[in-house]
Write a structure and sequence with these properties.
six-stranded parallel β-sheet, alpha/beta, 425 residues, 19 helices, single chain, seven-stranded parallel β-sheet
Length: 425
Amino acid sequence: MGRNSLYPQLEKTLLFINNIEKIYGKILKAKRKIIFLVKNFFTKRDYDRFSIKFYQENDIDVEIWDITSLLEKKDYEKLIKPYDQIKTDYVKQIDNIQEIEDRLKDLNHKVLVSVHLVYNLQSFKVFRLLSKYKTNFILYETSSPGFLFYRYEDKNFFYKLTYLRKYLNFNFLYNYFINFILRNVNPRIFGINCATYLIVGGAIYLKKKNNLVDKTTKIIWTHQKNYDLFLKNKNNNYEKAGKKYIAFIDQAVPFHNELISMNIKMNAEEYYSSLENFFVLIKEKYNMEVKICAHPRDPDKISKYIKKFVVEKDKTIENIKNCSFVICHDSIAINFAVMYEKPILFIYNNVLENVKNFDHLNFIKRYAKLFKKKPINIDKIGNLDINRELKIDKKCYDEYFKNYIKFKGENKFQCETIKDLVYSL
């Protein structure tokens, strides 16, 4: 073989080595990233509870993909935009499925997508794209009991019959049927992979079925997100109020975006007037102030309707920690009452009882049942015995904590666990 015949072979070899070096160099330079895939806007509260600053300080790029306008095309303009919505470079407002695909194409292997969506007809195409591009993604089983009642809890025949009669229409039946299939048929038939990781909180997960979890999914036990705030504030001795007070957990029910999307209307004036009258009665009869813990999504609305009591923003955990007892419907913030072992009074009113096309009262009753309680209608109060209502069943609180907040796993912030997952990619 002549000298000249070696040159082409040598050039090919050198070119091959050079290409390998470029590819390896790109892999080394590829920066770790976490993407939060969210619906219902991204707020200052989300910035804190997702621990965005923590990831950034640990050399992990952060992006938020807010796909509210994509999933809620029909009702997007009606939705109430949060007062503290964050709009910055790393928050991407995505309103079409093609943009999601284009972004997924460009991701490297060191990216982890934190998915805060329910797997259903609405989000189906998003999950298909995550699978198409073999994206590593996390799902969460740290939901409130109310969400679990809706998805998993068996209901007796008469409840099912009443439910179907109440919501009987074509759109409801179509969505119900398709979502039933998605929850029960192997997702791989539709080209959808199961989650890479599943973050789990309470032991109730052991009794449930998640169709996007299989033997390839790594189960990681942590806790429900509110427990992060509990850990953060464990040694924070908030200044106690001089007088005893009651904490009411507002859910901004008449203005909730979920109800707006379902075209459910509620009389806000009547709803809040009923609450205020009840708070006046409680204050006069038991000589205790009522502090209203405003819903974080829309804390200013309630002040337009309730004038006689203090409405406080961003102080829910502080107010619950130092209160005498908690009044609520079925808010996830009940978790704080459990963690601080505060008595809970479950309430509803005529507005919630009579609202059309949404059985909110049933959720409140089921929540109360976990604590061996029955909610009271504050518009038909009669002779209310607060002392009887506010007894704590320690066993119920312990069971609730184990089932819905934390069952096992290390006592560390959820973001620390997820950071380790990103580093492992």
